[in-house]
Design goal:
CATH class of the largest domain: Alpha Beta
Number of strands: 17
Oligomer: single chain
Strand order of the largest sheet: 8-7-13-14-15-12-16
Number of domains: 2
Structural class: alpha/beta
Largest sheet: 7 strands, mixed
CATH architecture of the largest domain: 3-Layer(aba) Sandwich
Helix content: 25-40%
Radius of gyration: 22 Å
Number of helices: 11
Distance between the termini: 43 Å
CATH superfamily of the largest domain: NAD(P)-binding Rossmann-like Domain
Amino acid sequence: MPQPKSVLVTGAGFSGAVVARALAEAGHLVTVIDARDHVAGNCHTARDPETGVMVHHYGPHIFHTDDAQVWDYVSAHAQMMPYRHQVKARVGGRVYSLPINLHTINQFYGISLSPAEARAFITAQSRGAPVQSFEDQGLRFIGPALYDAFFRGYTRKQWGVDPTRLPASILKRLPLRFTYDDNYFAHSFQGIPRDGYTALVASILKHPRIELQLKTRAEDIDASAYDHHVYTGPLDRYFGHRLGRLSYRSLRFEHERVAAPHQGTAVMNYCDADIPFTRITEHMYFAPWEAAEFTQSVITREYSHSTGADDIPYYPVRLLDDKSLLARYDALARATPGVTFLGRLGSYAYLDMDLAIRRALDVGQHLTQAFARDRSPQVFVHPLCASESAAADPRPVIAAE
């Protein structure tokens, strides 16, 4: 019988926690480290001590998936509460529904069209120029007026580049509806854990063969002391940025306590370019089963900016220069034995929570099978192909996990 392996997992977010649990259940000894003082990574939630509101500290996270196995997995570790995500957008001092739907169209143009009439109307507004960029796609998708109102300014703020430099595939994943359906997601399973994401991830990590070490960086650990290393941190950081830095967008959050209710919805996007933040989140609405109890609310203004050396990376930019550099890091990673690169940062791809869990489950199974054959494999999800399973660029158009 092969002996249990000792495995180091860097990162206590969903990717690291799920793969750690799979290996621990297979009998291996797993050490999970994270540089922060909490688990769950950017999904971290905690109750505000003054108001009692459950706050999504690094931005809104809504669990949505069509993968029944992944839904069953998270449901085994948390009570998943029904939640229907609705996003509003402020444009020119007025509030509209997103994604763009029949109500948005009628309100924006001050008309009253039927679904068939609206479809014909938008077709007449759209431009049929060849599609190469995000802007080309937007003009063809909804025409110049809606594109300028809802996407041009917001996209500049979100990504820090002109929309003509972004690929068209980003916008192709956003629905355009000729009904009054304003459900942001169309997945079969949608919800939010009653006790928050941090409690959910803590439950995944609760196993006698998992040792958790917080406030511990990968650079502080001798990975060579372990049989295998699963790394979910930034790919370029693992190699000391020796080839250069991959580009990320980072986020700055301004939290404020206000009288409840403040804006009447969980997320309000601010699409005008002259407003510096991208959106305001009112956290109590992520828990509709308790929202009416609060007299004080917590709101968060969100600002997007380029990632500096000391900033937390959130979204991979993945412009042409990044893809060239990424290919070189890819080759370097494939030549590194005994290391599995996993997760949003490890594969340099925007992954929703359900896809991160699915990949971690698959990698955990692969490693378990390899260890059963007494091998220490290297596994690397090719980052240049990371969006193929979603059939679209894996970046959010209007950020909402």
